Every structure is written in structure tokens, then in C-alpha cells.
């Protein structure tokens, strides 16, 4: 993979972040007072004494609003990443060399070899063979001192 994250990896991370925020928001909403909306001044009722875990709406509202703003940011980021991914696919369609297509789809988009096979219409075995050739070519292009330090790490 390239030095940076692939577009698919970035999308996956953003989706995980969004799902966490949605879960957190749901958790907070579930822990509102049983009667729906409760103000912070309720005196010493049984729920406070026995620790029901519910919180007053006015105490939770700012946190819920902040979480919702983060969810909105995630949605915007996901839209941008999806558009970028589409633009990259459009550019890749212009590439004539199947080797270059495989390299970009694998290293920059983050597709697995089977997915590359599906996208390009080439067999999985052919895509796998091209990927191995690309790896070999990349390894041969590394400076000699980098190769030596890699070999020394393996000892």
C-alpha cells in the first residue's frame, strides 16, 4: 500500500467514527429519565437515592448536540471521500495499462485483488499475477541501502 491511507481505509475509519457517535448518542438518549424529560431540580426522589443512572434532559442536551454536530461532520467527510473515490475511478478508466490500473486500485483505492478482478473484468489469477509483478518491480526500485536494512531486520 502507499505511504498514505487508501481511500477505502479512510472511508472505513470515518464510518466507524460515525457509528461510534451514533451509538453514544443513542446511549445518552436511553439514559434520560424514565418519564422522558426530567429537569435537574427534582429534589431527593427515589431515582436519585437508588441511582437509576438517568440524567436530566437539560444536562444531556449539550452533549447530544455536540455529538450530532460531529455526526454531521462525519457525513460531510464521507460525502467528500465518496466523491473523491468516484473521481479516482473515472481517472483510472482513462488508464490504458492494466498493470497501472491494478496498482492504483490496490494501493490508492485499497481494493482487494478479488475486488480489482470484479472492477476490471480480468480474472482473479491474472490480477494476482500482475500484483506480484508490481510488488517485485517496486522491490527492485528500492535503493540498495534500504534493501540491506530490510534484510538485516529479517535476520
Give an overview of the whole structure.
The protein has 155 residues and is mostly helical. The chain has 2 domains: 1-94; 96-155, Arc Repressor Mutant, subunit A, CATH 1.10.10. Helices cover 74% and strands 0% of the residues. The protein has 7 helices and no strands. The chain has helices spanning 7-30, 46-50, 57-93, 98-109, 113-120, 124-140, 144-154. α3 (57-93) runs antiparallel to α4 (98-109) and α5 (113-120) packs across α6. The longest helix is centred in the middle third of the chain and has 37 residues, at 57-93. It is elongated and about 60 Å long. Residues 39-44, 47-52 and 151-155 have low confidence and may be disordered.
How do the helices and strands line up, and which of them pair or pack?
Layout: H1 7-30, H2 46-50, H3 57-93, H4 98-109, H5 113-120, H6 124-140, H7 144-154
Helix pairs in contact: 1-3, 3-4, 4-6, 5-6
Helices and strands, in order, run as HHHHHHH
- Sheet bearing the most strands, described? none
The fraction of residues assigned to DSSP E strands is: under 5%
**Low-confidence spans:** 39-44, 47-52, 151-155
Secondary structure class reads mainly alpha
Helix content: over 70%
Number-wise, the strands total: 0
Radius of gyration: 25 Å
Query: Mean pLDDT, nearest integer?
Result: 80
Distance between termini?
24 Å
Per DSSP, the total helix count is 7
Morphology call: elongated
Number of domains: 2
